[in-house]
Amino acid sequence: MEQPSSTKRNCLPSATFDETVGDPVVEDMEEERKNFFKIIAAFKYYRHSSVAELKRKECFLQTLPASHQDMLHSYQEHLRNLKRCIDMNAQVIKQIIQDANCLFQNADHNIEPDQQPSEGLKIRYQDFQKVQITLKQIFRDWSEHGKLERDQCYKPIIEEITTFFDPTKYDLSKVKILVPGAGLGRLIYELACQGFYCEGNEFSLFMLIASNFVLNRCVIENQCTIYPWVHQFVNNLSKKHQLLPVSFPDVSPTKYPPKGTMNMVAGDFLQVYRDENYWDCIATCFFIDCANNIIEFIEVIKNILKPGGIWVNLGPLLYHFSDVPHEGSIEPTYEDLIEIIRSLGFIILKNETDVMTSYSQNPNSMHQSHYNSIYLVCQKPLN
Amino acid sequence: MEQPSSTKRNCLPSATFDETVGDPVVEDMEEERKNFFKIIAAFKYYRHSSVAELKRKECFLQTLPASHQDMLHSYQEHLRNLKRCIDMNAQVIKQIIQDANCLFQNADHNIEPDQQPSEGLKIRYQDFQKVQITLKQIFRDWSEHGKLERDQCYKPIIEEITTFFDPTKYDLSKVKILVPGAGLGRLIYELACQGFYCEGNEFSLFMLIASNFVLNRCVIENQCTIYPWVHQFVNNLSKKHQLLPVSFPDVSPTKYPPKGTMNMVAGDFLQVYRDENYWDCIATCFFIDCANNIIEFIEVIKNILKPGGIWVNLGPLLYHFSDVPHEGSIEPTYEDLIEIIRSLGFIILKNETDVMTSYSQNPNSMHQSHYNSIYLVCQKPLN
């Protein structure tokens, strides 16, 4: 995970990060700028890193007996086709980072995705992987192919919120919803389409850069095509599954702007949100298990909710820091978590388990995985 | 993956590895001995490594605000219960490695699982993880709880083989079956129970040491109890799921010896099996994707099968070396693989996909994963 960005910045609707909001210390800004360029570099050299990965496979293939190489003609052709898909991914990534140029208003970096990394610049393998994850996240949040996953997790949240905040009783434009861990912003878009005021918070610059592109620069449906599964070399039944194109966005947020308001804020949830009794609703989807200390997250959610406001949560308990070296982590089971939520003063309105959800799952892979998620609706008492 | 063991050795029925078979070079033997002790050390310091993992969690917990610690009393008690389960796992592991003493006939190491690692000895984290995998493998192969997984993958293989080698037409004791990647030996036991002569081949010393214990030293049903899920801190609904005891073996191979013959051979499949036209049947279950070059595996299978003999395969294509640094790997998709198998001269008798199989899956976890495996029956032509 990259360094936290501690200042509060809007990337919507202005399409630029506002560096004047908050009061960042100069060294922090320098650190953030470095981090920003590191991530831009990971995007920029996506093609180089991907082709290097293919080359390693081709080189190994050259060491095999001639009789084996003869049997692998079709596989070799497949590798060449994968390279073409990587080229097309790189073209889309070029557009994504081109727009990121204006995220830092006085940025002076030069974006040329086809270049080789300069001497001394090392792209970390985990950052290359995060670029791949970003492509899968586009599949999940903004493609027709990702509809099943979105229906599994966003639909119950949206239905819950629209039922609770009945439009005949509430002026939805004044109902303030926060979505921490907003990723590529589909959930905030959908909530804003219902008429709510909805703010997304996101920590990862990979997500922020890509969401900025989808939310502000994709003007027509299915404007771009990516190949999200080209890096998955295992458990493929067919070559065409690995080469599957995915177009996005299935809906253009600029062409069909929501009737409500949406806003995306960069930064660490724990540092950005301090105003007590501010939000009418907080919706967390695959988010609360991203904490070193989950109680801290739930405590902040409780503090910033208005009395009578609700917290809707869906997701598993895949505590992200559980096996990260040099990171602290507590991992209470769900039954302990429920007790903690109660002891923090929440009224539990709904408490369901075994809600089937998948996350960036390649539908054609021979390996299928899903979460039996928990679904919680909790209310902050009126006094 | 540990170093290959290139010599052919029996660990059944003699319960000792025969170091005189084959023609190992002295340096190879020294290398193998070092590797053996490294793996024994990973088992031996299982308790130490596990308690260190718990301690890290407890230390982080101590840094939390007092109010949070108050909410975590139940979680803290849970950590203490986990420690008791780890102690019990360590007792079983002590028995498992005690018996491993006689695998190398002139071994002089001292096995005391409760000790701290001596100065300078570092247990690699991946070896600690392999001890955990071994516990899960015991669940899969030798517990009542693992029956579902076994029925998914071993049952179709056994039924195929008993149908092909009809006992009214064949003297099963003379039908020679090889199971490469035999793991903890359940499949070879089941095939030997049908009356066949069955040999398992295994490369991993973790598996060989544990299978030796189950096959030769477990004299009554459910003689031992382990806690295979204690190291899974994520996606637990309930504390009792993480603390679930699993007894083994559900059947004792020493108390109910098979009517046929079974034998386990240590070593690298590619190096050990050279005799052409020797086996009547080869059964591979979650094995063929463990190759750097899958063609090499299939070619050996073809060579060592008798004309008219069959190869039964079930499993996914999770090419194990796909993302291992400094390892070569080719990853043909299933459609290419079928063509390769045909071009090697096999007659394909059955070719199914989407056979649902799971592998060491914690049935209570909120994260569920399975493979839509391929199921293949191939025959070597008579001429």
- How many domains would you count in the coordinates of chain A? 1
* CATH architecture grouping of chain A: 3-Layer(aba) Sandwich
- Helical residue percent band of chain A: 40-55%
Order of helices and strands of chain A: EHHHHHHEHEHEHEEHEHEHEE
Class by SSE composition of chain A: alpha/beta
Query: Helical element count of chain A?
Result: 12
Number of strands of chain A: 10
Task: Determine and state the CATH class of chain A.
Answer: Alpha Beta
- Side-by-side strand order of the widest sheet of chain A: 1-6-3-2-7-8-10-9
Rg of chain A, alpha carbons? 22 Å
Shape of chain A: globular
Enzyme class (chains A, B): transferase
GO molecular function, one term (chains A, B): carnosine N-methyltransferase activity
Protein name (chains A, B): carnosine N-methyltransferase
EC number (chains A, B): 2.1.1.22
